[in-house]
Amino acid sequence: MSTKHTMKKRKACQACTHAKAKCSPFENRSDLCYRCQRLNKQCMFENAAVRKGRPKQRSRVKQLEERVESLVNLLTANGQSAEVLTSLTTSNGSTNDTSVDEREETASSEVLSSGPDTPGVHSNDDAAGFDAIVAGLLSHERAGRLLNTFRNSFAWTFPFVIIPKSATVDSLRRDTPFLFLSIMAVMTYETPSVQHILGDEFKAQIASRIICQSQKSLEILQGLLVHAAWYHCFFRIRSQQLAIILQLCVAMIQDLGLSKNPKDKTRNLSLAEGKPQRSANEKRAFLGTYYLLSAFAQAWRKRTMMNYTKYMEQCCRSFADEPVVPTDMLVWPFIHLSELMCRVNNFFSYDDIENAEARGEIELDMSMNNFRSELERIRDAVPTTVKQNTTLTLQIYLLQMWIHESSLHCSLWSHHPLPSPHKTYSSLSTLRIRTLYLSLNAMKAYLNSLLETPQDALYHFAFQAWSGWFYASILACKLVFLQENEPLSPRHSHSVQQTPGLLPEYFGPGAPHDFYSLGGDVESRNMWDPVSVVIETGAQHLFNLLLEKLKFTMDDPGNNKDGDRDPLFGIACVQRMFLAGFERRLKKWSEKNCNSHPSPRTTDGGGMSAREAAMSHEDQVAAGWNVTGPLPDPMNFGTLQLRSENRFDYTLLGSFGQQNTSEDWMWNMMMEDFTMPAM
């Protein structure tokens, strides 16, 4: 056959090709199209290009075959059977593309299921997580009791992770093992050794699931929130990890998109597709993250890592209007109190007092009145069914202390950015003294609320309640020893120091009835007397009562290992540090001043003198505490020894300040930083 007859023509003529127009044959003619006939143009069809030589083998087929061969070699090198892949190899170069793709998918799935672990691929055991029941640490019956306790009691102190009544131990182990492990780690406080093991396993799961496997789910976020809420149970004085865990919660919120309104049309549609609104659990987790971040910011005097938004307000309002469970009634007041706490911190710049913009009595008075009014509005709006909630009451007292803390910072009461070296304060204004009284009253109310709490219920409190206890204790010490932070006038530095600010005439009819009448002239009343403040406020007595309250954490002389300590043992140790430092400072001040001036007494003659109030040794002996013994590392709670007769050797912590190398070190650190030690 000649080339002329085998040569094919293009389907479009040259004119239509250049014009990029449609070319259709005119009346079934092969040499003329409609367009050329209409435009009266010459219609020419060029010859089609001819591919020379033998068609080459398709490169994709070859690449897929090479990949299959590499998988076979990988299995063979690791001692695995390659029978699943040998049938997939072929030497036929004309293999169909579809069949090759199917073989590649099958081979890959076989390798992932039977081959060795590779980066990004984890075994089923890792995915299932650690099971405390399978490990023999918990029985099924005990796990059920602990789960019910968490669901019925612990949720009232942290209502942001709710376990429905329909959920069982088996369903949680199967569906949410990470959350189940987190709950069991918190609830095993009666067996500290088991709690210690579960806490370490939970941290290992954090590393495996979040860091290695990059898992992102609501279950992971809820587990992190439970662990962070009761982080004081896993207190390690030298390894602070709470900030890291909270940052992981923030990252999980961002990855899951829980901080954005799903109805927002401007955001990525893929996140909100088919989901016009958040579930109740998602909104609780989102708000719970903000709640813990606010508590952390208050305890360590930092700016919060998450700002309050209108979408948060929308979520809060949804729980207030339509609560799903009874504890949802606490969500709205908890979040609003936390938001107010953050605004108070930002306004007074408690995290950076030196650069605070709010200064002067007038501005401070107006701002405190506004904050107090807002706090009252929140308290009045609390539903009647939850008004008696202890955690809510503690948070209100904490906020009252937080608002009036400004009375402790003398620089805020002057219009100068920083106190001048020559600027002195020889007296306290009536407004500032009234603010000090309000702060003191809130401190006493907070500590008394803790004292009224049953012993078993102390374990229910989330870490915000205990950070508030620490803050109230520091506030009490700051109030008593206010003169240590005040630049006093030289002409009053050696005068008799009294406390006129606590006299009834300074407060009017709202003053308490147990105030003391103190002698002295007008000038002497311009100063602040620590001993008189201790007598009037009962701060030292409150510290002793709190220590007595926590005595049960030290009652087992055989538990000397750190892993066997009660989860509240560290809190008891810090409370003892407060009391020891408080008594030493008070005794030093009393010995320095009582020689030249008489000690104040109560009006009825039945109260303690200043020297009696400062006698820490006699107080401890009378209370039945052992006050002698050697001194270990004051920051290592695990080395503390317990003595006979169920008495804790307090000098293991309290007397460390008597040594020259570490005298008052812990006290000074807490008083200067105004924050908790690293947790």
Automatic annotation (TrEMBL):
GO terms for cellular component: nucleus. InterPro entries: prtT, Zn2-C6_fun-type_DNA-bd_sf, Zn2Cys6_DnaBD. Residues 12-45 form the Zn(2)-C6 fungal-type domain. It is found in: Nucleus. Residues 86-121 are annotated as: Disordered. Residues 86-98 have a biased composition (Low complexity). Keywords: DNA-binding, Nucleus, Transcription, Transcription regulation. GO terms for molecular function: DNA-binding transcription factor activity, RNA polymerase II-specific; transcription cis-regulatory region binding; zinc ion binding. This is Zn(2)-C6 fungal-type domain-containing protein. It comes from Zopfia rhizophila CBS 207.26.
